[in-house]
Design a protein that fits this description.
Radius of gyration: 17 Å
CATH architecture: 3-Layer(aba) Sandwich
CATH topology: Rossmann fold
Number of helices: 8
Order of helices and strands: EHEHEHHEHHEHH
Oligomer: single chain
Shape: globular
Number of domains: 1
Strand order of the largest sheet: 3-2-1-4-5
Structural class: alpha/beta
Helix content: 25-40%
Length: about 230
Amino acid sequence: MSKNKKAVVLLSGGLDSTTVLALAREQGFDAYALTLRYGQRHEVEIIAAKKIAELMKVADHAVLDIDLSVFGGSALTSATPIPKGRSDAEIGTGIPVTYVPARNTVFLSLALAWAEVLGAFDIFIGVNALDYSGYPDCRPDFIKSFEQLAALATKAGVESEQRFTIHTPLIDLSKKEIIEKGRALGVDYGMTRTCYDPTPEGVPCGACDACLLRLKGFQDAGLEDPLTYPGERS
């Protein structure tokens, strides 16, 4: 950990990023939450992120608009149908259409910019190399490479003896382990939103990859997901 106790935490409003925020706070960081409205169809995440940031008393919360839907290339930022009902094997094979081109590179670059302004050298992101749905920008090699980039591409990286650290506390954890860790820290997962294709009212579909991974995580942990899913809970 750097001497500076400030950290930028990428907060989507989902289960993973909320757990990461709780972990950053547990480690004694003053958390500066960064939420990106990037043209995703699941706007309900942004609403959740605002509530979570307020409840968890972050030092500051920035919601930044960047419209990646201009480029397209992903089911999350276009009208391309979201895959539903895929098996564990299917979810774990190949790069799905929900991959957003270079998303984590863009997100980390923006987090890096804010961190440099804050004088912070710590950035937290909820990437996961186990339940990662095939996204290439969730792998340890990518994170290590970005740390090297940060050292070369910023004034702070060039002039300071400190080095930027990209914290990925969930990278080797299963969804079950993530949920258990969050529950131990008092995270209210009823506030989080994970679904790729929720209803306009924010009800999760229960069938997209994100919902299936989330539901399996709660089941494996022997817990009930506090969210309501169509046709399953009232």
